[in-house]
Write a structure and sequence with these properties.
The chain has helices at 42-47, 79-92, 107-117, 154-164, 173-177, 182-187, 193-203, 221-224, 239-243, 250-255, 261-274, 277-285, 289-295, 324-332, 349-352, 354-372; strands spanning 2-5, 8-10, 12-15, 24-28, 51-55, 100-104, 125-128, 170-172, 232-234, 307-312, 336-342. By secondary structure, it is α/β, with parallel strands linked by helices. The chain has two domains: 2-137 and 290-372, Rossmann fold, CATH 3.40.50; 154-282, no CATH class. Helix 2 packs across helix 3 and helix 7 (193-203) crosses helix 11. The longest helix is centred in the last third of the chain and has 19 residues, at 354-372.
């Protein structure tokens, strides 16, 4: 436990801390993950010479200091406050900068805003599973055109209505996860929490043969409806009802080496204790007008540090926001080393293919350091030999 981190008592998993002066690798998980989701990768990076730190993010696991209530203010869960969490943790650990910053799923935009806001502290960034399309922008060159015709945040409502008008009616998963009932639906599902989590992890992995992701042509109801029901749900169904038909067999569970029953039991125990509301707050942040307006502080600003995107070949997350991948490559990140989609991985890359992921991260870190670090060796700068 690291106390007093931006108002949090932050629970971390770490390795490589026994040796002084190691460079810091910071790993930020997503939903519904925990620091524990990095368990296969942490020793790989530590063996390569890093001090590896993976926190339970605000709202998750054993980190405390956040309010577990649907009606609590959302501002503490904003991306910029979660950037402050990361800055506070790096500082509390006695570092001036990270040598490796990796964000997965909802941790990906947090890592992206870290690199956008504080490139001095986060001199490279790896985004996983969720491409970063850039910060919300102010309309440009509109002074002579009068008031903009389209008001912000009407797009969400229009898309929801178009999805509901499909046959059968559908609903985007982020909309469902933002509802008041989502927490209780997932915390106390009819099949039990352990079985729900098993099905959720399975259906979003490369183990489920139904995952054949491909780019979508646009953010329309018809295009989005091509995604599996765990992304574009049947309207009126809960997430537990949505994934229940895909629960793996006893033989498939036994064959799952990347998430054994004992390992899944850690997730079951933690979410049984906390519920999901803290973890779900970030989805509500995405559609909050005030918190989106706050991000316009970075309107037009790009990520100018070395960056890299890693996805799973069987993960729809790469394409779930149509156009985001291309925007990241062409506009949002000016020094992108590339996009790598890992074979044999779905959404849970760090659990499904940790060896391949570790090799990619270490190669990118070496390349990024060669580009930017000529010899400023304060704590946290030194690289493994």
């Amino acid at each position: 436990m690291i106390h007093g981190v931006n108002g949090l008592d932050m629970h971390i998993l770490e390795a490589g801390h026994e040796s002084p002066d190691r460079p810091l690798a910071l790993l930020l998980h997503g939903f519904p993950d925990l620091a524990y989701g990095w368990r296969h990768l942490i020793p790989i990076l530590a063996d390569a010479g890093y001090h590896v730190v993976a926190p339970d993010q605000r709202g998750f696991g054993r980190t405390t200091g956040w309010v577990n209530d649907y009606d609590a203010p959302l501002a503490p869960f904003s991306f910029l406050n979660m950037v402050r969490d990361a800055i506070g943790l790096v500082s509390a650990l006695g570092y001036r900068r990270t040598a490796m910053l990796v964000g997965h799923d909802l941790g990906s935009p947090v890592a992206a805003y870290c690199a956008l806001a504080r490139p001095d502290m986060f001199p490279s960034v790896v985004m996983m599973s969720a491409p970063f399309p850039g910060a919300p922008a102010f309309p440009f060159d509109t002074a002579g055109q009068g008031a903009p015709a389209v008001q912000p945040n009407t797009e969400h409502g229009k898309l929801a209505a178009a999805l509901a008008a499909l046959d059968p009616p559908r609903e985007y998963y982020q909309q469902y996860l933002s509802t008041r009932r989502a927490n209780d639906d997932m915390w106390h599902p009819p099949q039990g929490l352990h079985a729900f989590l098993r099905a959720f992890f399975y259906v979003k992995s490369a183990d489920w043969p139904g995952n054949r992701p491909h780019p979508l042509k646009g953010r329309t109801a018809e295009e989005l409806a091509q995604m599996p029901t765990y992304y574009v749900m049947d309207l009126g169904k809960t997430m537990s009802e949505t994934v229940a038909p895909f629960e793996p067999s006893a033989a498939e569970i036994l064959a799952c080496k990347w998430l054994t029953e004992r390992e899944l039991g850690v997730y079951t125990q933690e979410y049984n204790r906390t519920g999901f509301q803290g973890a779900l707050q970030a989805y509500r942040v995405l559609s909050d007008p005030d918190l989106n307006a706050e991000l316009r502080l970075f309107s037009g600003k790009t990520i100018d540090v070395p960056s890299f995107f890693i996805g799973g070949k069987s993960d729809w997350g790469t394409y779930s926001a149509p156009g985001a991948l291309d925007l990241m490559r062409t506009k949002a990140a000016t020094r992108m080393s590339g996009v790598e989609l890992i074979d044999g991985a779905g959404h849970w890359i760090q659990q499904e293919q940790p060896d391949r992921l570790g090799a990619l991260l270490l190669a990118f870190a070496k390349e990024a350091v060669g580009a930017d670090h000529a010899g400023d060796y304060r704590q946290g700068d030194r690289q493994p030999g």
